[in-house]
Structures are given as C-alpha cells and as structure tokens.
Amino acid sequence: MTLHRHSALAFPPLAFSICYPTPGIFHTDRFLPFLTDNTDFTVIGVIGPAGAGKSTIMNEIYGFDATSPGMLPPFPIESMETKAMARHCTVGIEPRITSERIILLDTQPVYSPSILAEMIRPDGSSTISVLGGEPLPAELAHELMSIQLGVLLTSICHIILVVSEGVHDNNMWRLMTTVDLLKHSIPDPSSLSLSHPQSSNLGSDKEVKDKIQEVGEEYMASPVFVHTKLHEQDVAPHYLAQLKKGLNQYFSSTSFNKQKHQNVDDGDSAFAAAPIKSFFIASKTNTDSLGTQHESYHSSLWNLRDQVLSMSGPSFSRTVSERDWLKNSGKIWELVKNSSTISDYCKTLQNSGLFRR
Predict the structure, then answer these.
(1) Tens digits of per-residue pLDDT, 208-245?
(2) CA-based radius of gyration for the chain
(3) Given the DSSP bridges, would you call strands 277-282 and 222-230 parallel, antiparallel or unpaired?
(4) Which spans are transmembrane here (predicted)?
(5) Which residues are CB-contacts of 300 (< 8 A; sequence separation ≥ 6)?
(6) Separation between Cα atoms, residue 178 and residue 96, nearest integer Å
C-alpha cells in the first residue's frame, strides 16, 4: 500500500468526539456520510501526550506537503499561541480519510494538564463522567480517560502509533501495558453481535466474552512505538539498540509481543513472539547538527510513513465495511465505558491511596 505525498482527500474532513465537548457521546453521524460500503480499508490511530508530535506524524502519513503554499494540514498542529496558553490542540477523535481508503484517527492528548484543568472542580471532583455516572476525583477520571482511549483504539484500529517525547518518559509504555491488561472482552468492529439490528442492548461482559470466544482469539491492533524530539546524544546507534531491546523486554509478556502465524503445512494458526516495531525521530531543531551518520528529522518522518503504510496489520475477525466499522466503533465505545474490568481496576486505584477521594 503506497500513499503518494500529494494524494487528494477522498472526502471532506470532519471531527467526532469521544469525550469533548459532549462527554460520553461517540459522534458518528457527521462522518458516516463520507464512508462507503467498501471493505478494503485500513484504520491507523495515534495516542500520546500533548506536544509529542502526534498530529505532525498523522499529517505525514496522510501525505500532506507542508511546502505547498496556502495549504492547511488535514490535522491542525500546535501553534505558538496554543503553547503559550498551555492548551491542547486536538479534541476527542478527529478522523480523516484518504483516496486510498486509509482512515486516520488523530486523538486528544493523554496525561494532559490542560485537559485535567478543564475537567476539575474546585473540590477536586471531575466534571466528566467516565464510568456510568459514578463521581470520581478528577485525577482518577483523567487517568481512566487515557486508559479508555487506549482500549478503544486497540479495538477499532489495525495499527496504533504510540508516541512519546524523548527517550526517558515511559508513561506511554506503562499505559499500553495497562491497556493490554484491561482490553479483554472488548470485541472488534466486525463482530456480528454489534452489527445485528437489535443489538442496542449489548449484554453483560460475560455475554460479550462468550460471543468473542465463538469468533476466536481476541483482537488487538498492532502497535508502533514512536519516540520523537530526540537529542543528539540519544540517536547514537548503540543507544537506540539498547532502547529497542528494553522495549521488547518490557512488552515480552503482553499481547503486543505476539503475532499470529499461519502454518503452511497443516493450515493451523499459531502465535509466536515478534519484535515490537519502534521508530525514533530526532528533534527538528537539532537535525542540522546530527551529521550524515544519523537520520535527519525529515528523513526519519518519511521512513516512518513508508514503513507504517507497508505494514500488514491484523485483520478483523470478519469482513466489515467502512460504514459498519464506524457504526460498530460507537457501540464498542459504549462497551469500553461500561466495562466491568475497567470499573474494577478503578476501584483498585481508589483504594490504593494514590488518588484523593
């Protein structure tokens, strides 16, 4: 799959929100008219903190050419004014679709001080309900929102880009191990139970698990870990090799480190350990001082784009159209919000003493 740098947008870009400005509503109606019954499409999502370069990476994958005069990027990027006001740029989930039928999902930042500031009341409680209306401390609700977003993206995407700034912040690694722990029992968008006309009542977690077992193994998007804004001392080959080794060791016991393989001889499927995909992007301001022995900012972005678009992510359990994918993604968001597994994890955090009551 190749996406040309000047590829035209297939349909006008529209945004839908999972959290803001209307909490708890997964808006699909505005984007649905621009999708078709095509079943050959790829969904790529991104998750990461504010200012790490998520929208810049998604613009690159989209094929946006920043050198074209008068052209606005499909995904707005952080401006100096946004930085000065300490605000986040992306709200909820913003989708775009290319003429090659690649659906790109840019997302609001996780672990964002500006989001926390918007949702905290004077008494420390959250203005946003994240677990069925249960009042929660804002810090805890903020933590759970990041987890819910990760669970949603690993359920509805083929590929998820996990972006971190620098090499010393392992918050995204920790988040994704938590997502792997709590995602179970969440189906993929091709589930027949989701597509059924009378499936508005999705049933209990146990019923959902039983339906997943009928299909087979649980679905998990392929992660690509991206570390951005690396300094000159961080891009030395031996240092990056150690970082890749640490990444694979960190996720060695998770679902992300297992890849399905088909046995050609007997047709059986099996799971085997597969290296975690990772990319490292130098800081744009330091790219001129790196020298020819290191990959520059722009070339590393192009390499990331080419590698991601050439990936063969996991397939959904059944064939699904673009329109049904979107409709069922909204239903999956409801499952995520009402997950008893995430609710139990929330209670554990409440009792841990890490968050105010």
Answers:
(1) 555 544 444 689 999 999 999 998 888 888 889 999 99
(2) 20
(3) parallel
(4) none
(5) 279, 280, 281, 282
(6) 28
